[in-house]
Specification:
- The chain is an alpha+beta fold.
- The protein folds into 3 domains: 59 residues, Nucleic acid-binding proteins (OB fold (Dihydrolipoamide Acetyltransferase, E2P)); 63 residues, 5' to 3' exonuclease, C-terminal subdomain (DNA polymerase, domain 1); 49 residues, Helicase, Ruva Protein, domain 3 (Orthogonal Bundle), CATH 1.10.8.
- Helices cover 42% and strands 20% of the residues.
- It is built from 9 helices and 5 strands; from the N terminus they run βββαββαααααααα.
- A 5-stranded mixed β-barrel has the order 1-2-3-5-4.
- Helix 7 crosses helix 8.
- The radius of gyration is 17 Å and the shape is globular.
- This is Holliday junction branch migration complex subunit RuvA.
- Keywords: Cytoplasm, DNA damage, DNA recombination, DNA repair, DNA-binding.
- It holds the Pfam family RuvA_C.
- It is found in: Cytoplasm.
- It comes from Labedella phragmitis.
């Protein structure tokens, strides 16, 4: 089991960070928010979970031990795989997840791409009583905006991964109180400003 790694950041691409440890490069899946916080050429420390399957070994990295603990708990929920668990953490912090579970509220999980109503409810039921050591917070919530889905689709069309696009739209909604009623063009412009240069493989506008 690889529980943590410390090393130089070689590259960050989408939701994957490449970390060099002792001359060996590790590809580590991280949330978009975590990826943005990593700086190429600088040292980074990540708590990790190694998923071993017959055809692959995949490493997932987290900025705090709480993120890793919640990820591991999510893996124990029927219907939640590693990518879905990381998707939940891309939208909700450990404290927000704890708050939703404590309130028996599955709505925040239903807003995560790939998490259906049944799985969302299972997350709440399965995690009940297991997040007692995590401080409940409600900061930076997932915010619904009327044109959000259209903006996410437009960003995906430009080459951004869906998780990254959705996170950017949510950040825009949190940063701009009037985003709920803003037109698609305005939201797209703000999201692009949030994301920076488009991926090389993205389509031209």
């Amino acid at each position: 089991m690889i529980s943590s790694i410390r090393g130089r950041v070689l590259a960050v691409s989408g939701g994957t960070a490449h970390i060099e440890v002792g001359g060996v490069g590790y590809a580590v899946f991280v949330t978009p928010e975590h990826a943005i916080a990593l700086t190429v050429g600088h040292e980074a420390f990540l708590y990790t979970t190694l998923i071993v399957r017959e055809d692959a070994m995949t490493l997932f990295g987290f900025e705090t031990i709480e993120h890793r603990e919640v990820f591991d708990l999510l893996l124990g929920v029927s219907g939640v795989g590693p990518k879905s668990a990381l998707g939940v953490l891309s939208h909700l912090g450990p404290g927000q997840i704890a708050a939703a579970v404590a309130a028996d509220d599955d709505a925040p999980f239903r807003k995560v791409s790939g998490i259906g109503p049944k799985t969302a409810k299972l997350i709440v039921v399965s995690l009940a009583g297991k997040l007692l050591g995590i401080t409940i917070t409600s900061d930076a919530p997932v915010v619904e905006i009327s044109a959000g889905d259209d903006v996410v689709s437009a960003l995906v069309g430009l080459g951004w991964p869906e998780r990254v696009a959705a996170a950017a739209v949510n950040d825009v909604a949190v940063a701009h109180p009037d985003a709920a009623s803003a037109p698609v063009q305005t939201l797209l412009r703000l999201a692009l400003a949030q994301l920076g240069p488009a991926p090389r493989n993205g389509a031209s506008a």
